[in-house]
């Protein structure tokens, strides 16, 4: 009220604003009752009580505009009525977003921002401190419902989840207060946003004290962010550290002196002034001076320090002050035809004694007021001023009460786009460690994990799932993991990709060194036996075993040992192209020699039968024919393989996770297994023929040794098939080398060890008689 008086008197003294005009005002107290508010609105419109609708008995001076109400619900009621007459209404405290609807409330304006901006500010505040799990409580009225709904939309946009929403009954019975306090206590949300006024919040705070609720941080709407009622010491344990959105505060020059100059007998509203005076000086205004604790009205307000004359943070008073100046500036514009396209002809622009409220409405819509603090006030298309808020922190004062300290601001006028600003270092938190509290449904997922939403719960409630094989996440709270490039692999923390190690059977590895050494040393054994055969080539045991074919077999066995070296080292294209073909041809040559020896043994014994036609197949050329034909067939298969689908080196990233296996791709598995199958076929034929000839009469029947050698050879390669399929990477190659060496050793051992033993250690058995079985008595 005093701010209204001060603004009117200041304007009346101004030579620039409405010169030679005197503003006046009516004040009506509805006592916060809707029926009284309705009566008061109609009284102001008609000029009499009881009101007569659509009739005004007040002729002069005209009622320019109405300032009020402070509560949104009451302002909505007034706006519905005043809008019918296009009567300007300026509220200084109603913030409901419903009042921005110009279709319903075309003549409503306000000097406070809409709750839409407040909700955006609260959402930015919650987001700034990374609170993703909050509870909402609101008054069960228009202010609470509309404010909380807009707030919910804004915080969801920012990725914040709502743990619960509770409404405080507005009928002052407060039946659900215990339930609200218990929900706040039991919820894991540490932050509670209260969209209410202090009168509705007090019962909730009282119940929270009874339930001993601690560890909660309140975020207040402007409805109670600067309330002196709940700043009492009683609530300090609950509200210490709270943050709130408050209306913009500013000083009004000269207002402090004006307040202190008030006298209960020389001011408007004498009844109110007397009550205030008695409360401020704790006395009674009476005529007699001899009554105890009496006062005269001459006391000095300078000696009193209370909320009345504290002008350090004017908010509601400043908004009332602004509302008066808005109306006065609009009237001034009307009197000067500030806008030539206005609703009045130019000849009537200055006639402020006779204008209609709807005519002034045009100038209020377009008004621009520069206040004494440098702030410019105007309205947007919805009748809202620029959104400017203070962010306040509830901190303990020296007397135990709580003080609201400005720690930041929200200013939609900021041209840089950074409308939200806060000084975190100036905030005093009510937590035990005095640090920013944490309010999340689930702890943040570290790098290397992704969020997996729990079924049926808000997105802020999630599980942290490790990234899958070959995937990483390099930021906290990642909603997905990303696959590494094909040549890279995650580190142990799965937060970055590292180059995959390359694997192949290298000569630098112990396994490769052992295999290579074994192959080289083993290749010398057949050569040594070859030299032994050359030395003893004239002896019966060497001659009886087809000396020439044995020499070819020994040389090919030496090459079999050496071909294992082609499988060791980095798989070059040339190696991949030739190594399997070389292995197949050399082993085919070996098995062909053994097959030729077997066939010749059978033919030799069967040709001794009378009338046998096999004599012509016992010539020296037959073994060479068999060797040549068998080897040629394998050569043909290899040529077709290398011509149509040649092997090539490849990077295998699937065999072993996290490792690039450099290997030779056979390209055509059919051709590879045809080559290997043909080799097995020759070995099987040799084994079968030798097995059938094992009982031929002779002291030294080579068919027995061939049988064992082929049995060992086939056993090795049959075992190789499942072993190679189960091995991975370089160990597959190592298994094939092992099979090559083992099968070759089987042939050397079974085919030539008995002969070498006889030549070196039983020379007496190296005679024709012994071999023919004619000297058995001496044996």
Automatic annotation (TrEMBL):
Identify one Gene Ontology CC term for this UniProt entry.
plasma membrane
| InterPro entries in alphabetical order | ANF_lig-bd_rcpt, GPCR_3, GPCR_3_9-Cys_dom, GPCR_3_9-Cys_sf, GPCR_3_C, GPCR_3_Ca_sens_rcpt-rel, GPCR_3_CS, GPCR_3_vmron_rcpt_2
Q: Name one GO molecular function term.
A: G protein-coupled receptor activity
The annotated topology with respect to the bilayer is:
Multi-pass membrane protein
In terms of SUPFAM superfamilies, this protein maps to: Periplasmic binding protein-like I
Subcellular location(s) of the protein: Cell membrane
- The regions listed as transmembrane in this protein's record are 511-534, 546-570, 582-604, 624-644, 670-693, 705-725, 737-761
Q: Which residues form the G-protein coupled receptors family 3 profile domain?
A: 511-775
Q: Does the keyword Magnesium apply?
A: no
Highest taxon in the source lineage: Eukaryota
Which Gene3D superfamilies does the entry mention? Answer: 3.40.50.2300, GPCR, family 3, nine cysteines domain
Q: What is its main location?
A: membrane
What keywords were assigned to this record?
Cell membrane, G-protein coupled receptor, Glycoprotein, Membrane, Receptor, Signal, Transducer, Transmembrane, Transmembrane helix
What Pfam family is a match for this entry?
7tm_3
Instruction: Family membership, please give it.
Output: Belongs to the G-protein coupled receptor 3 family.
The name this protein goes by in its record: G-protein coupled receptors family 3 profile domain-containing protein
| Organism of origin | Xenopus tropicalis
